[in-house]
Design brief:
The protein contains 3 helices and 4 strands, in the order αββαββα. Strands 1-2-4-3 form a 4-stranded antiparallel sheet. The longest helix has 18 residues.
Length: about 100
């Protein structure tokens, strides 16, 4: 089953439900600050696990105590789809558990 791009309105509606996430060109994006480099690294590992479970992967950047993601759906031509928001919601749940803000 093909994954369909979301309209601008659909993207805006979904972003309104995910504080901290924003549209960055043809991707949705979010950065998190954690208490230490170790905490940020642990969060990256957990995000990678979720991405493998969903078979949907973001660009993921680890900083000293930060984690940043940008995501779109490559298989749909590099546009934002519901798959991206599913990943974003799962990452938000992980972030809360890691004390990220």
């Amino acid at each position: 089953m093909a994954v369909e791009p979301l309209s601008q309105k659909e993207i805006e509606d979904r972003l309104a439900e995910l504080p901290g996430w924003s549209l960055d060109g043809d991707r949705i994006a979010r950065s998190y600050r954690l208490g230490s480099h170790f905490a940020a690294t642990a969060m990256v590992v957990h995000i990678a696990q979720v991405q493998d479970e969903l078979d949907h992967h973001s660009d993921l950047t680890l900083g000293y105590n930060t984690v940043s993601l940008t995501v779109n759906t490559h298989s749909a031509g590099g546009v934002v789809t519901e798959k991206d928001f599913e990943l974003a919601r799962r990452v938000e749940a992980l972030a809360a558990g890691h004390g990220a803000h």
